[in-house]
């Protein structure tokens, strides 16, 4: 059996795996992505990007690749309308991008940076020791090869092979209810946005290409024990019982079902094996939150793992991936479980829905739920979180730098940290660039001023990680050196 080596093996070439591969390459790590499917899927399960994910794509210069994107100001919480266009982000709202297009863009980006993607390549065995992970990969022709990597990351979905082989503990609740979902050509039914009818829930949305996505749940009907996806006859029969409409003459393009199962691994890391996306947390895909949560996992992990394999990570850096993302994932799963009850519950949940509708009239409630769904409210725990920016993501701001006009997002595109000084240095203040000189290979130091009228970043100076989260703001020289060492390791020798 042949054997090859790499820094990181990523299993799964969906959006999460490809996003992670690109982030790892930005950080200088060698990457092999193993994907069981021989070609990219044509099934577009998810179709919604949220504000924080759009900000991350902007930080990597990928927004223009999306082209013209439809945007909606209004999301929902359990089918109850929730304004998302008011969130404090340049990309507030819901952005409609098919998952197939996201995969295409991320695939071109990751391979352009040097990631190797092996398709038709299935993981069959995985072992780890104190120095590396050894994986056995089987190609379509049945031949096998051994790959030895410093670390492996499972981005291979709800039924993750990596999770099973590495022995992660996956806890939660099984699905009790389910939605049937189908893309159907050749039907003409009214568009429906979470319409609750006497016998069930019906959703329908016709796309520009004429295909209609229908989703239906029959109240009181438990989730089926399935070994395969439902057939079209089951979808049409359920749709007819709930809506009274006949869609049986349509042509099914794609059919699946999903339930309200909720699971999360107890640890996102076991030794040299880590999980991201649906491999780490499985939840009902409400409003595209599963895809967005997974992409944000990848951006949080990528720079930390790259720094680790290159020997530049400070002690404990890789463990912050679990500490930060498990907490976020747990909160999202809790919110989705509440939404599942509001969506799939029958007449018995109407009093709860009525109360929830009333609460959503309060701005504080809308802000709490909207910031969670959009991701802009994520604030990671920091040892000293006195400044309102610490732990939060760096807001978009229009800047004038020494090199000309720029934005905070553009200044993060190198994949390095960012030391941003926004006020002229006074005579009694240390030159921040001098302080950060020992980290010049990992941190970009920029002096800028906001464009007139732009007050998005209310601070004198800040330090942001490669994922855009702020770890130092308006402190002194000593605090800055501490933050640089805490997140980027020891400085280079002078």
Automatic annotation (TrEMBL):
The keyword Oxidoreductase applies. Its cofactor is FAD. Residues 5-333 form the FAD-binding domain. GO terms for molecular function: monooxygenase activity. SUPFAM superfamilies: FAD/NAD(P)-binding domain. Keywords: FAD, Flavoprotein, Monooxygenase, Oxidoreductase. This is FAD-dependent monooxygenase. It comes from Streptomyces beihaiensis.
């Amino acid at each position: 059996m042949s054997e090859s080596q790499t820094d990181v093996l990523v299993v799964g070439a969906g959006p999460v795996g490809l996003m992670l591969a690109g982030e790892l390459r930005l950080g200088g790590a060698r990457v092999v992505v193993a994907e069981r499917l021989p070609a990219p899927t044509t099934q577009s399960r998810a179709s919604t990007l949220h504000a924080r994910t759009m900000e991350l794509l902007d930080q990597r210069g990928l927004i223009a690749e999306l082209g013209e994107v439809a945007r909606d100001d209004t999301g929902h919480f359990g089918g109850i309308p929730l304004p998302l266009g008011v969130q404090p982000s340049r990309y507030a709202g819901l952005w409609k991008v098919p998952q197939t297009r996201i995969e295409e863009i991320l695939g071109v980006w990751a391979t352009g940076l040097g990631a190797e993607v092996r398709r038709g390549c299935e993981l069959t065995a995985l072992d780890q020791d104190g120095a590396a992970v050894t994986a056995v990969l089987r190609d379509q022709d049945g031949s096998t090869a051994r790959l030895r990597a410093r670390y492996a990351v499972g981005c291979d979905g709800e039924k993750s092979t990596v999770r099973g082989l590495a022995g992660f503990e996956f806890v939660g609740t099984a699905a009790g209810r389910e939605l049937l979902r189908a893309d159907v050509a050749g039907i003409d039914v009214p568009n429906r946005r979470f319409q609750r009818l006497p016998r069930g829930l019906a959703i329908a949305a016709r796309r520009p290409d004429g295909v209609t996505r229908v989703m239906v749940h029959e109240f009181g009907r438990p989730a089926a024990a399935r070994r395969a996806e439902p057939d079209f006859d089951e979808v049409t029969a359920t749709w007819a019982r709930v809506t009274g409409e006949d869609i049986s003459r349509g042509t099914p393009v794609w059919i699946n079902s999903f339930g309200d199962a909720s699971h999360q691994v107890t640890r996102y890391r076991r030794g040299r094996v880590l999980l991201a996306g649906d491999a780490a947390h499985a939840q009902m895909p409400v409003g595209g939150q599963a895809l967005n949560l997974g992409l944000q996992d990848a951006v949080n992990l990528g720079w930390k793992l790259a720094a680790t394999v290159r020997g530049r990570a400070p002690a404990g850096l890789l463990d912050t991936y679990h500490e930060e993302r498990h907490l976020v994932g747990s909160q999202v799963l809790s919110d989705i479980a509440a939404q599942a009850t509001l969506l799939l519950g029958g007449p018995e949940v109407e009093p709860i829905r009525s109360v929830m509708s009333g609460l959503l009239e309060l701005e504080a409630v809308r802000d709490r739920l909207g910031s969670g769904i959009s991701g802009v409210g994520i604030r990671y725990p920091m040892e000293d979180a006195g400044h309102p920016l610490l732990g939060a993501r760096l807001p978009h701001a229009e800047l004038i730098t020494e090199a000309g006009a720029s934005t905070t997002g553009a200044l993060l595109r190198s994949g390095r940290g960012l030391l941003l000084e926004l006020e002229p240095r006074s005579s009694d203040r240390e030159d921040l660039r001098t302080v950060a000189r020992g980290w010049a290979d990992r941190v970009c130091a920029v002096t800028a001023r906001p464009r007139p009228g732009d007050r998005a970043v209310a601070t004198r100076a800040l330090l942001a990680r490669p994922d855009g989260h702020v770890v130092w703001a308006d402190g002194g020289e000593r605090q800055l050196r501490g933050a640089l060492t805490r997140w980027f390791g020891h400085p280079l020798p002078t």
